[in-house]
From TrEMBL:
Signal peptide: none annotated. Gene3D superfamilies: Aspartate Aminotransferase, domain 1 (3.90.1150.10), Type I PLP-dependent aspartate aminotransferase-like (Major domain) (3.40.640.10), Winged helix-like DNA-binding domain superfamily/Winged helix DNA-binding domain (1.10.10.10). PROSITE patterns: HTH_GNTR. GO terms for molecular function: DNA binding; DNA-binding transcription factor activity; pyridoxal phosphate binding; transaminase activity. Coiled coil: none annotated. It comes from the Bacteria. Residues 14-82 form the HTH gntR-type domain. Keywords: Aminotransferase, DNA-binding, Pyridoxal phosphate, Transcription, Transcription regulation, Transferase. InterPro entries: Aminotransferase_I/II_large (IPR004839), HTH_trans_reg/aminotransferase (IPR051446), PyrdxlP-dep_Trfase (IPR015424), PyrdxlP-dep_Trfase_major (IPR015421), PyrdxlP-dep_Trfase_small (IPR015422), Tscrpt_reg_HTH_GntR (IPR000524), WH-like_DNA-bd_sf (IPR036388), WH_DNA-bd_sf (IPR036390). In the C-terminal section; belongs to the class-I pyridoxal-phosphate-dependent aminotransferase family. This is GntR family transcriptional regulator. PANTHER family: HTH-TYPE TRANSCRIPTIONAL REGULATORY PROTEIN GABR.
Length: 478
């Protein structure tokens, strides 16, 4: 960026601060302000342009709201990338890896690799358009009202379209239940299928949110041994016989935390055992959208629809803030019991995120956002593979939102401590562990950092933490 940015502010109409923001957006789009550039301090720009500091402050705030820049207290404001107005999948332009690490994240602040969310793509303009369209058609009124417990019909129709198009699962919109995100869905389903004290089978290392829900409801998770394809059928059969459990919770695609994906034949085996031992399968398929397109296995719900509760999280693949997920039920699960659970846990799902999603499905924005998220995820996986090398397991898909570093419990805790002291937060190794012989290691979430330079710096810290010599905490002796 040039030493002094002198924008050509458009003439009226419009407030001065808004026109200054328009000039900023234009100069980003034309390349005058490249991604990662640091903007002048607000007081300095005000002096340069002969404006009040308040006008520049409001312009910067508006630019941040539009997704044009990242503001860090004590560090300044940095250009986030090209215009975030998503119209096609290739419009996403993240901060390139050639930018300085400081551009995306201030040194001294921790970098969070714990939260498994999609990488941010510019959504502000698309959100603005969707809300404006909803207001124009009068549909926005639904956002300030209670809606029916299973969700708006239009949202469930969009959900059915999305599941058919992106998950390969056909379902009737009338059978879908709209939930307030995946965590709400997990709590809702487990509380409806189980009673306190019941045993729920799952992978030996499983999603932390399921552990939290089970603990809250007084359920016992029984871990089942895994191999490179996920659940081992013989181990599942032994556990079903020993425990007489009636529910299996599983993440068969890009398993959380290990990223392992069940092959089609393995899924057939799991379905066969579930039938033999009358297990209801609760399939958390939050990451199916990230699976390799040419090699996507069928969901368990397509193999054993008569006994599979299927969960698809929109938050994990498009926008966490939507708090949106869909659940389908097999015939043996009473729908009314689920409806009572919705009313008990939240009365009804929120409307606005679902309504925006429905509009995005109809106009193609949802596909554009999802494709942009996956393209960025693939880049981040490649970055992790290059930096972490053989320490990282090969993920179950080239676009996995998280990767797995197998380590002994002691080495995992030591690595976490080293990384934390260097400013990187990781999920504690015991958080996902269910059994004593659980898969041991660290899950590295790639989507939470704002940009690639921040992620790159964090991965180097993790690599150094893995390779750090063993020391005595008491003496510091190597």
């Amino acid at each position: 960026m040039p030493p002094i940015w002198r924008p050509d502010i458009p003439p009226p109409p419009g407030p001065l601060y808004s026109r200054l923001t328009d000039a900023l957006e234009r100069d980003i789009a034309t390349g005058i302000l490249p991604a990662g550039s640091r903007l002048p301090a607000q007081r300095d720009l005000a002096h340069t342009l002969g404006l009040s500091v308040g006008t520049v402050t409001k312009a910067y705030a508006e630019a941040e709201r539009r997704g044009l820049l990242l503001a860090h207290v004590g560090r300044g404001s940095f250009i986030r990338g090209a215009s975030p107005d998503i119209t096609i999948a290739t419009s996403f332009d993240p901060v390139p890896s050639t930018s300085t690490p400081e551009a995306g994240h201030p040194r001294g602040a921790s970098i969070d690799l714990r939260c498994n969310i999609p990488p941010r793509v510019g959504l502000s303009r698309a959100l603005e358009r969707a809300v404006a369209d909803l207001a124009t058609t009068g549909e926005l009124d639904f956002a300030v009202q209670y809606i029916q417990a299973s969700g708006l019909r239009s949202v469930r129709e969009a959900g059915a379209t999305w599941l058919a198009r992106r998950h390969g699962l056909a379902c009737d919109p009338a059978d879908l239940i709209q939930c307030n995100g995946g965590q709400h869905a997990i709590t809702l389903v487990l509380s409806s299928l189980c009673r306190p004290g019941d045993i729920v089978l799952c992978e030996s290392a499983t999603f932390y949110g399921a552990c939290t829900a089970a603990e809250h409801m007084g359920l016992t998770l029984r871990g089942v041994a895994m191999d490179e394809e996920g659940l081992i059928p013989s181990a599942l059969e032994r556990a079903a016989i020993e425990t007489r459990a009636r529910v299996l919770f599983t993440v068969p695609t890009l398993q959380n935390p290990t990223t392992r994906t069940m092959s089609p034949s393995r899924r057939q085996d799991i379905a066969r055992i579930a039938r033999q031992h009358d297990l209801t399968i609760f399939e958390d398929d939050a990451y199916y959208i990230y699976a390799d397109p040419a090699d996507r296995p069928p969901p368990l719900a397509a193999i054993a629809p008569e006994r599979t509760v299927y969960l698809a999280s929109i938050s994990k693949g498009i926008c966490p803030g939507f708090r949106l997920a869909f659940v389908t039920l097999p015939p043996n699960v009473a729908r009314e019991k689920i409806m009572r659970g919705i009313r008990a846990l939240g009365y009804c799902p929120p409307a606005l995120g679902g309504m925006i999603f429905a509009r995005w499905v109809a106009d193609g924005t949802a596909d554009a956002v999802a494709d942009a998220v996956q393209a960025e995820t693939a880049t981040r996986v490649s970055m992790a593979r290059q930096i972490l090398g053989p320490a990282m397991n090969n993920p179950g898909a080239a676009r996995s939102p998280h990767v797995w570093v197998p380590l002994s419990p002691l080495a995992a805790q030591r690595t976490l401590n080293h990384a934390l002291r260097a400013g990187v937060e990781l999920t504690p190794p015991e958080a996902c562990s269910v059994s004593r012989d659980a898969e041991s290691g660290l899950r590295i979430c790639l989507g939470a950092p704002d940009d690639r330079p921040t992620l790159e710096r964090a991965l180097h810290i993790v690599r150094d933490a893995i390779q750090a010599p063993v020391t005595s905490e008491a003496t510091g002796i190597v």
